[in-house]
Please model this.
Amino acid sequence: MNERVDAGAPFRQTVYDTAAAHPEFDGLIRRWHDNWLDIASPVITETLQIAQTLRARGAAIAILSNIGQETFDLAAARNPFLATFDALFLSGPMAVTKPSSDIYQQVEDTLNHSPETLFFTDDRVENIDAADRRGWQTHLFQSPQGLAQALVAHGLLTLAEASL
Model:
């Protein structure tokens, strides 16, 4: 169900159709739609601080996310900082999800950057592996502190900037 929404299927309809097909779990499944904002919270403020520091250094910051347009719009309404990114690559409107190599190719083409100039962090190994295969600089996200250390190692932040 989530994969279909991430690939562009209508959020509410997909969830409610799935709930109807599994009446024994109807309430639980519908709750995924009805309480999505609570499920998708909270914002990791330290990671947001890292993005703001990178931006202050002149780095372009983009989002590459497996998310449908409707769910992103819900998140953006609650989290205005999502409108501050330089580029949004959302799987729903792109009609392709990570870890397909096509989504990474679309990012490269749209940004007009060669793979080795792109730094990518994600919390899923398969997405990191796919970006690695394309030659991107990568980091498996496990904590804001680990991300900050990786950015220092890649020369994108100084030690002082990385202290959270």
Notes: The chain has a mean pLDDT of 94.
